[in-house]
Every structure is written in C-alpha cells, then in structure tokens.
Amino acid sequence: MQFERICPMRKGSHTRDRILDIAESGVLAKGFGATSIEEIVAEAGITKNGFFYHFSDKNDLARALLQRYIDNEEAVLDQLFAATREEGGDPLTRLLEALEGMARMMRDLPTGHPGCLVATYCYSERMFDAGVRDLNRAAVQQWRERFLPLLEAIAERHPPRDQVSLSAVADMISNTVEGGIILSKALGEPDVLPDQILLLRSYLRLLFSPVDA
C-alpha cells in the first residue's frame, strides 16, 4: 500500500527521481518484467548510460523503487497516527481514528489506488535477487511490527471478545488493505478499498467492545 504516491505522479526535477517515477508507474500498470529499461530511458529522455549512472542493473532499480515505497508508506502511516489523539489516550480510539482517516484518504483519490509494489513484487519474486526479496519480506513484517504492539496495548485495556491471535489480527490489517486494493482494481470500483477499511474498523471496534453481562 502507498498513499502519497497514489496522487498524480510527482515530476521530480532530479533524473533519478524521474526514472523511479516512470519505472513505478510502469511496474504498477503491467508488472516488473514487462517494464523495460529501454522504455524507461525513452520516456525519461536519457541514454542507457544515464540510467546505469544511477542504477547498476534492474535489481538495483527494483530495490530503490521498493525502498522509496516503504519509506513513503511508513511516513504516511506516521502522519495518520499523529493526527489521532495524544499518545497517552485510548489506544483503541487511536487505531479506529487512524483507520477512518485512511479510508477517507483512499476515498479522496478520484481514480482509486494504482496498486501496491509489495504485492506486485510477491507475484514475480523469481525475477529478483535475494536482497530484493528480503526487503519485500521486511516491508510486510513492518506492518505487523507497527500494529502488534498497538493491538497488545488495546487488549490490555479492552480484552477481546473472542480468542484471537493478536499477531494474526495485525496481519489482517495489511491483508485487508492489500486485498481491498486488488478488489478495487479488478472491479474498477475505487470505493471498494475504503469500504473494506471501514469494515475492518467495525470488526476491531466490535472485537474490543465490552462483553454484555
């Protein structure tokens, strides 16, 4: 998932950024294998030597694309949680507000989410070297590491109504978002993604609500 770069593609003045912008757009549209260095350099208006000045090979480009994606994703999640109540507040309220903000952000995108590099890389992982695969795995694990401590803090204050693995619930958050992206793209219905996020929000609210006496 990515938020800031969901918006119209940034036209950076720096050649490296321009290459990354073009490559990301191509990879999300048709996959990494179908996005050639030749078409990237043609659209960027540079030579192949200009490309190889910035990236040693296509795997190097893949790593740079993914690292930028991960950094941006983390920054946007940080912003979403910073917009919620203060650190000392109810952790459940913070999570529910962050998910609501995420859904609102997705709904504001006129053409929907363009796709996720993490998922795209998973589908064609044999094309990448071990370093790219490890980085992609780390990107998925970052979501678990971000949400699991928050869910544990929530469970201490609001014991869950059902016996669940909090680690699995943390994975469910990323799974819902990634799955929502795929559904939205497959159906051509941008609102599917924010609706899925709001359904996840409802599930978490019910899971941690008090059990009736």
Structure write-up:
The chain has one domain (4-207): Tetracycline Repressor, domain 2, CATH 1.10.357. It has helices at 15-30, 37-44, 48-54, 58-82, 91-107, 117-123, 130-157, 166-187, 192-207. The protein has 213 residues and is mainly α. Helix 4 (58-82) runs parallel beside helix 7 and helix 7 packs across helix 8. The model is unreliable at 4-12 (pLDDT under 50). It has 9 helices and no strands.
CATH architecture label name? Orthogonal Bundle
Structural class comes to mainly alpha
The total strand number stands at: 0
In CATH, the homologous superfamily goes by the name Tetracycline Repressor, domain 2
Largest sheet: none
Q: How many helical stretches? A: 9
Task: Determine the N-to-C terminus distance.
Answer: 40 Å
Residue fraction in strands:
under 5%
List the helices and strands and how they pair.
Elements: H1 15-30, H2 37-44, H3 48-54, H4 58-82, H5 91-107, H6 117-123, H7 130-157, H8 166-187, H9 192-207
Helix pairs in contact: 1-2, 4-7, 5-9, 7-8, 8-9
